[in-house]
Amino acid sequence: MAYPSMLGFQDATSPIMEELLHFHDHAMIIVTLISSFVFYTITMMVITKLTYKSMLDSQEMEMVWTALPALILTMVALPSLRILYLMDELNFPNLTVKAVGHQWYWSYEYTDFEQLNFDSYMIPTQDLTPGQFRLLDTDNRMVVPVNSPIRVMVTADDVLHSWATPSLGIKLDAVPGRLNQTALMTSRPGVFYGQCSEICGANHSFMPIVVESIPLDHFEYWTHSMLNNA
Amino acid sequence: MSIFALVAKQVKTHPSLIPLFIFIGGGGTMGLLYLGRLALKNPDVSWDRKNNPEPWNKIEPNQQYKLFKVNMDYSKLKKDRPDF
Asked: Where are the transmembrane segments (chain B) (predicted)?
């Protein structure tokens, strides 16, 4: 999860996020190489004692500095498009969860087999117990079975919201009157945090998302206990 | 002089313009071709209001409507939704 002074991405929990991390490494290397090369060139040009006042052009150099950026951009674009198409592919989900954004909480509906609906409010700071995270923990978490492809459908009840979990590489706008769909698969069990990512009023910063991924038999036990306690 | 003759004269003295034409022309061509593909083959686009007003209702379950596929095997898909 996120921690203070964090610089990089959170650890990947889904295969798509892993792909995005690798792509970010690839693009970052290219960016670092270009920036250091430009910085070095400018520094050398500024401090050099060699001068040649009759230089007008150099056709060969111009050919290189036209072709090389085009090739570098292609090397960045092709993996990027691959991931883009990968993200849109079907994942044959076993479970569908609906996440509905309200002002200012999320509600989750598991309606494949029984009718399991519950709200997920942020725990107010004064009610936190030791070990809980300020502005991130909620009273009910969206629990999913680990290693299972899941369909998440996101919509909103009133104004725009956005359902985001950086660790899973998901951000999906919750638009009233519209049903957006994404594929989710957690590769490891754990608790993964996210926050509402579309300005939605006074408590926009105080409606976090918590996804908890557990083994399938524990998930069945959880659904039973949630249905019985409702 | 026509624009082509002007450009040909410039290219003779500045051959470094050739990669520029190749990449900019190639990129622009690819963009226009993709736009044409979207206009003609995207199921969200309706040209013929009389005979085919809503092509998005006619997508087959194993039809690949996107340009590329990475991990999908479209031949293995089948329709699991009820007909209207």
From this structure: 20-40
